[in-house]
Amino acid sequence: MLRSIRWPLTVLGILVGIWLLIAYNQPKKLDWTPSYRNDHKRPLGTYASFRLLPTLAKASVRPTRESPYVALQDSVKAPPAVYFLAQQSFQPSPADAQAITRYLQRGGTVWLAAEQFLLSDKIDSLWQMPATVDAPFDLDVSSKDTVRFRFVATALQKRTAALPNRVVGTYFAHDSLGRLLAASGKSKGQTSPGTVLALDNQQHPVLVHTSVGRGHLYVCSVPALLSNYGVLYGRNAAFVAGALSYLPQGPVLWDEFYTQGREGDDSLLRVVHTSPALEWAWNGLLIGGLLFALLGARRRQRPVPTLRPLPNTSLQFVRTVANVYRQGRNHQSLAGLRIRLFFDYLRTRFQEPVPLTIDTDYPRRLSLRTGIPADEVTALLARLNNWLDAEHVSETELHQLYQLLTNFQQRAER
Question: What positions does the domain DUF4350 occupy (predicted)?
Fold first, then answer.
């Protein structure tokens, strides 16, 4: 039998091995998730832009995973020339927005690339952000799957870029005269004091510049242009270099707080663990609370009372019931109860239930099962029926009934 299945098993093993080899060597599926992290080499990461920016800025590019409130506050004495943000959705906290605003008003430059700008009314009034509009899927009629971008400046018009429509984000809204419209809040319906730097093939603004105090804010609604795919696709590298050429030369602070999160411990006690004094105080609080729970609760605990088991009063109950029966002169109820117990004994012991009307055949059957003569059985049943029909049963008659039934049971059990 083993020889008959050896060749099929060998062929099956070879086929499984070939399938595993093909599955192992097949190319991995690309991850198109827009992360915009500077350490991701996936299509929508920013590894290439992070390596290209030091060449254009001619200065160092330092990544930070602190919030803008902390990162820009720590660099008040030596602020960076550019604060660079690239992400899917930009939704700063009020503290971060105010820190970026103060940095701009002092003369800093912020490059912000995102598809969505979720800003409050107060932030809009400070930044005068232009409104973004969702990009439709048919921006270019002649090339439905490709969106092309160009600069407005004459010196940079030869530098163009193209991206597939599926990775293009949004564009900025403008009125019929080409002026940018404000996003929302108090400035809704008004124009934003911004300058359009780049357009798509439908003349929609995708890169704008606006002034905040003494600083400059550059906003790009297509962060995919700065991704690995956007930089390496076609001749887009020249376009990205032209867009980044608007930035001043100097040190750049690359924000990774909104893409990777805070560096280090992200628990609620991270501030406590950063300071030895706070950590000692926290440990002392925990030890003190534990000692209070063990010692304080033990002192205040009430003594547990000893519960005695309940006495067995069954015999007292029987005596009480018996005394109730004995106090009466008439013992007919007690006699009836004793007779019914005797009838139940005949039913369970000899399987002979007492019929409602006793015929002549019942004493004979009971006599055969108990071994007592039939005439004695007939006489006993007759006396029992008399006691049941009697209106008064004396104490002497009750004793006679007890002796009569006891003798019958003893004779029947022999």
Answer: 39-242
